[in-house]
Amino acid sequence: MNNFIFQNPTKLIFGKGSISELTNEISKDKKVMLTFGGGSVKTNGVYNQVVAALKGYTLVEFWGIEPNPKIETLRKAVEIGKAEKVDFIVAVGGGSTLDGTKLIAAAIPYASDAWELVLNPKLITTAIPFASIMTLPATGSEMNAGAVISNLATQEKFAFHAYYPQFSILDPEVTYSLPPFQIACGIADTFVHVMEQYLTFPGQSLLMDRWAEGILKTLTEIAPEIDENPQDYDLMSNYMLCATMALNGFIAMGVAQDWATHMIGHELTVLHGLTHGESLAILLPATMTVLSEQKKAKILQYGERIWNITKGTEGVRVAEAIARTESFFSSLGLHTRLSELNIGEETIAEIEDRFNKRGVKFGEGKNVNGAVARVILECCL
Ligand code: NZQ
Ligand code: ZN
What we know:
The protein is α/β, with parallel strands linked by helices. The chain has helices spanning about 20-25, 40-45, 45-55, 70-85, 95-105, 115-120, 180-200, 205-230, 235-245, 260-270, 275-290, 295-305, 315-330, 345-360, 370-380, and strands at about 10-15, 30-35, 60, 90-95, 130-135, 145-150, 155-160, 165-170. It has 15 helices and eight strands.
């Protein structure tokens, strides 16, 4: 096991009716900025619950943080936050609203342009404290310090890490209004977050393996049931907690991590608008295939423990584990091939070129460069 330092300061407030806890978490003298996406919280009653809980506070609202939040939109929120001198921010929405808010919080006290902070997070020295009401289980953003921001002008999408939410409220009932496609993408995203931290090589931590497998197994069990009963409280509670636990550092202690699938996925999203979870459903089976020699031992363990694959040669078992992974994503109703979306050589060449120019080396083996990304993308056709 590698050395590590673990500290996660986010307070989780979980359960039915827990949005009303807001008032116990933010002192009355704060000027609170509320940030929102495109309006789902108005139709599902979340907005009313938040405003009722914050009765008596001075509130400033910012609407319109879009999926894959754009720097162009966030700059407007930063301007308002500076002018209004807000001193606390609550993001009410999915991962995009919260990711955008993480940048807004860091950029309000920053004198220059917010995009500089995305490119160089070392410039972030302070931030306005913030919290979240998470309405979409997927990103784990509610309990991590990461955020992924897009730039329309330059067609770039980059992640940065800075501050954790002070607290996050998770009420599984707010997920009842999610469209099936967003649930499918959220389950795929959660699954791939675990795989990025798990599917490297065995023998690092018995405990991390079992925790990761526990999340994967839970997802494969609940996914078909959620499809039947998307308003079942216990099912959605389990899904919501899987998403949080998959990317809050708990399964990453002392182990190597991959993240190549995510890095290629961000390029597909910024170039073609693919929803994040679907980009991963397309890419992960291909990453597993192309790197199957390097990842063989762990793929065999994954196949046996998650899909009960115990028969056949190693080659047969590896192939079956990859096929089961792809059919799991298909069973969610997601595309798993680039050709289904008419994405081909032009995009592959563009991503290869970008990676070459940036000199990237992703993955636990630091060997996913432009050329390897090309082979992975070709394998998704
Ligand atoms: O904008 P509104 O109207 O709120 O609608 C949203 C949006 O259209 C809707 N939605 C959210 N909660 C809902 C709901 N609709 C009905 N009922 C609800 N309860 O869902 C749509 C998608 O929302 P979005 O926030 O974009 O989805 P998600 O949470 O999947 O976030 C995706 C973003 O997070 C980044 C992705 O790259 C992408 O930009 N990620 C962030 C990570 C992190 N912070 O650690 C890690 C991830 O790997 C990921 O990269
Ligand atoms: Zn993700």
